[in-house]
Amino acid sequence: MSAQIINGKEIAAQIKIELKQEIEKLKGSGITPGLATVLVGDDPASAAYVRMKGKMCEKLGIHNESIKLSSDISEEKLLSIINDLANDLKINGILVQLPLPEHISEQNIIKSIPLHKDVDGFHPHTWGKMMTGEDTFLPCTPAGIQEMLIRSGNNPEKKHVVIAGRSKIVGLPLANILIKKEPGANATVTVCHTGTQNMSQITKQADILIAAIGRPEVITADVVNENAVVIDVGVNRVEAPETERGYRLVGDVHFETVSQKVKAISPVPGGVGPMTIIMLMKNTVKAAKLTT
After folding, report:
1. In the sheet where 34-40 sits, what is the strand order?
2. Rounded to 10 degrees, what is the CA torsion of 109, 110, 116, 117?
């Protein structure tokens, strides 16, 4: 058996076409969506993410401002920069790339972003709206996963979704999104984590398994069932001396064996990653619409 491959690049390309049309309409009304990305320090992965977001803005016609700051910047100075962006009418969305240096409070920075520009969906008040079902910006990776499932013909409605991982970036918001009583959700959700006993007994019951653990290839064929849909959120570097880079990227799922057993699976790379970026663009367009 060979699984259906849930191609995040292809699904993101579909959404890109839809967003282009929306952006053209906004520009016809004199509004150009604007996104500001703030990068503190020299983390290579964070820098790569910011570059990809900038390239997507360029492709879509979204105004983009990338602000790169030294890792020794003070929290006070960073807050001042965010305040300037908050008052900049050209900017509809503000994204501060995480993680931040240890001397800066991530929560203080997140809370300083105005709700109407919180396109990353991390502000506590944004979370409160999400929890109570009010219209708000959904965190990009969880929202992207929901889109992947729906658009690939694997609607989570009335399914048992098992999420392995309880991070604030993926596991917790995704559980809240998929348990809502609304189309494209209405699932029974189980969240597993490091304190879960006999996790494999739970993962084997999943109609849809979301792997967001952050450890390479820990989900193996023996912990899933034949009818499962598996979404791999993990991006891990493992040594590969035979390659030019000296490493390769793998997910939290052992793709080679699991893909031979399950109904459907997303790859790494090319799965969730492109969806996260396109959902950020979607949130930015949504933020621009709030100004109309």
Report:
1. 63-69, 34-40, 93-96
2. 70
Q: How far apart are CA 256 and CA 241, in angstroms?
A: 20
d(CA 292, CA 290): 6
Provide the β-strand partners of residue 67.
38
Using alpha carbons, select from 98, 138, 92 the residue that is nearest to residue 284.
Answer: 92
Q: Which domains does the chain have, with CATH numbers?
A: 32-116 (3.40.50.10860), 140-272 (3.40.50.720)
Question: CA nearest 109: which of 170, 40, 51, 42?
Answer: 40
Q: How many CB atoms lie within 10 A of CB 158?
A: 10
Determine the 3-state secondary structure of 127 from DSSP.
Answer: helix
Q: What confidence tens digit (pLDDT) does each residue in 170-213 have? A: 999 999 999 999 999 999 999 999 999 999 999 999 999 999 99
**Residue 197 to residue 205: CA distance in whole angstroms:** 15
Phi, psi of 245, deg, nearest 5: -80, -20
pLDDT by residue (tens digit) across 111-170? Answer: 999 999 999 999 999 999 999 999 999 999 999 999 999 999 999 999 999 999 999 999
State the alpha helices, DSSP H only, in the chain: 8-28, 44-60, 75-86, 106-112, 124-132, 140-151, 171-179, 199-203, 255-258, 272-289
Residues 164/211, Cβ–Cβ less than 8 Å:
yes
Q: Tell me how far the alpha carbon of residue 106 is from its chain's centroid.
A: 18
Catalytic positions, written as ranges: 53, 97, 120
pLDDT class for 1, splitting at 50, 70, 90? low
